[in-house]
Design brief:
Largest sheet: 9 strands, mixed
Radius of gyration: 19 Å
GO molecular function: hydrolase activity, acting on ester bonds
Organism: Microcebus murinus
Pfam family, one: Abhydrolase_1
GO biological process, one term: lipid catabolic process
Strand content: 15-25%
Helix content: 25-40%
InterPro entries: AB_hydrolase_1 (IPR000073), AB_hydrolase_fold (IPR029058), Lipase_euk (IPR025483)
Shape: globular
Order of helices and strands: HEEEHEEHEHHEHHEHHHEHHEHEHH
């Protein structure tokens, strides 16, 4: 919320409680700088959901003319930004402490089952609006695919699902760092313990804001980014590299990372495998984790993906597209990597103005 008020926008902050007791930070930009608060105008709600290891700040990390949160507010929308359990803004629970392993026994299954519905229900109550537009990036699209195909009453609230760098299956992921994590998964899990994974600390804030801003380290930091997400330095605002790196990573659970690792060789999106038939039986009423069937999703969806994306690989995206029933628009951008959808210099021209156009055409 500091970033929002820094740029002169109105900001509201809410703590919402999920059905299983997690307390999540939800942020709102109710109107823009150019359209001051006129309560007689009911603004349409757009909900933004961040990806893996990040937070709501993804949508407001750029200059206002290139940050989707601010762009939508200035275009006259009521903007809400969610935070998944376990990140910096959602590390609280009604009775579990973040020091306990029980707090961290979740993956994107629970984010889709509890976090997203709680956020959407809260926004409906708060605004009185029965429907909204949903924008997800990366894991934020995964949550949409699961929630909107398994919880019809939430799916009915979504006018259009805008999916940026959509992630459904991860069989063809090419990211060297992800592949290395898969190869050394036992070691990675042993070193991480059973709790949180890559939380925001003063050390990584220091690396991002101080170290990476030094010329000598600039290329090292960039190369790490590109090894994870894909190459494209020409489309990144280098003067803001320290901002991006000081705000990320924001943390998740080790179990969430383990869930993604379980799926690395599969063309299906499956629930978390608890490792034993009896444990799976408790969670799913069956001995193996069920697959999520995106063909059950009736929500209209518009998608954007990048051919240089090492995480949402074009081959995986093709598998997803073959399963979508109500695919109203799609665009592949040849030079886009995974984070260009947030930080790309030309992201307004390539993606954001198209989102606004599609919303306007579907009113």
């Amino acid at each position: 919320s500091q970033i929002i008020s820094y740029w002169g926008y109105p900001d509201e902050e809410y703590d919402i409680v999920t059905e299983d007791g997690y307390i999540l930070g939800l942020y709102r930009i109710p109107y823009g700088k150019t359209n001051n608060n006129n309560n007689s105008v009911q603004r349409l709600v757009v909900y933004l959901q961040h990806g893996l290891l990040t937070s709501a700040s993804d949508w407001i990390s750029n200059l206002p003319n290139n940050s989707l949160g601010f762009i939508l507010a200035d275009a006259g929308y009521d903007v809400w930004m969610g935070n998944s359990r376990g990140n910096t803004w959602s590390r609280k629970h009604l009775y579990l402490k973040p020091k306990s392993e029980k707090f961290w026994a979740f993956s994107f299954d629970e984010m889709a089952k509890y976090d997203l519905p709680a956020s959407i229900d809260f926004i409906v109550k708060q605004t009185g609006q029965e429907e909204m537009f949903y924008v997800g990036h990366s894991q934020g699209t995964t949550l949409g695919f699961i929630t909107f195909s398994t919880i019809p009453k939430i799916a009915e609230r979504i006018k259009i699902f805008f999916a940026l760098a959509p992630v459904f299956s991860v069989k063809y992921v090419k990211s060297p760092l992800i592949k290395m994590t898969y190869k050394w998964k036992s070691l990675v899990m042993a070193l991480s313990g059973n709790k949180d994974f890559l939380p925001k600390t003063s050390f990584n804030k220091f690396i991002g804001s101080k170290l990476c801003s030094l010329q000598i380290f600039n290329n090292i930091c960039l190369n790490i980014l590109f090894k994870i997400f894909g190459n494209d330095s020409k489309n990144l605002n280098m003067s803001r590299l320290d901002v991006y790196l000081s705000q990320n990573p924001e943390g998740t659970s080790v179990q969430n990372m383990a869930h993604w690792i379980q799926l690395l060789k599969s063309t299906h999106l499956k629930a978390f495998d608890w490792g034993r038939p009896d444990l799976n039986l408790i969670h799913f009423n069956q001995t193996t984790p069920p697959s999520y069937n995106v063909t059950n999703m009736n929500v209209a969806i518009a998608t954007w993906n990048g051919e240089s994306d090492l995480l949402a690989d074009p081959e995986d995206v093709k598998i997803l597209y073959s399963k979508l029933k109500n695919h109203i628009y799609h665009k592949t951008i040849s030079y886009y990597n995974h984070i260009d959808f947030l930080y790309g210099l030309d992201v307004y021209d390539q993606v954001y103005h198209e989102i606004i156009d599609i919303i306007q055409n579907n009113l």
